[in-house]
């Protein structure tokens, strides 16, 4: 199970518990990476939020395919944390991630040109 206490800031809004008082609206990163249910009144941005999350996921997937570390860091939910993790766990080979090392599936697929049609 994924456990993470980090939160992503979405904006400011009102709570039903304290109407009239503006507060920060956040979502736990663990929830962001799983299923999300959003509800609210008309024209407050629910559809746009989901569109932005989908766009971010697509940008991240493209950066991963290209092994574009800087792009992945900039697209991450928490770029500062992502950069610090990458710097603290640098692999010997800059072309692979810290998790896979020499067994990086993306690097192998890129070498084999097995997924060029996905662009």
Number of helices: 5
Would you identify the regions where 5 or more consecutive residues have pLDDT less than 50? none
- Rg over alpha carbons: 18 Å
Please identify the structural class as seen in this structure. Answer: alpha+beta
* Distance from first to last alpha carbon: 32 Å
Helix content range? 40-55%
User: How would the global form be characterised?
Assistant: elongated
When the domains are counted, the total is 2
Number of strands: 2
Spell the H/E element sequence: EEHHHHH
Strand fraction equals 5-15%
Biggest sheet statistics: 2 strands, antiparallel
Structure description:
With 119 residues, the chain is α+β, with helices and mostly antiparallel strands. It folds into 2 domains: 1-37, no CATH class; 38-118, no CATH class. The chain contains 5 helices and 2 strands, in the order ββααααα. It has helices spanning 29-32, 46-65, 69-75, 79-88, 105-112, and strands at residues 7-14, 22-28. It has a two-stranded antiparallel sheet. The two termini are 32 Å apart. The mean pLDDT is 78.
């Amino acid at each position: 199970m994924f456990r993470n206490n980090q939160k992503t800031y979405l904006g400011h809004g009102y709570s039903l518990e304290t109407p009239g008082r503006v507060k920060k609206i956040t979502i736990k990163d663990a929830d962001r990476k799983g299923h999300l249910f959003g509800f609210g009144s008309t024209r407050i941005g629910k559809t746009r939020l989901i569109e932005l999350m989908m766009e971010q996921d697509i940008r991240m997937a493209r950066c991963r395919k290209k092994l574009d570390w800087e792009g992945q860091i900039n697209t991450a939910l928490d770029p500062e944390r992502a950069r610090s993790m990458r710097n603290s766990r640098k692999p010997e080979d800059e072309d692979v991630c810290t998790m896979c090392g020499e067994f990086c599936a993306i690097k192998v697929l890129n070498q084999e040109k097995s997924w060029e049609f996905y662009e």
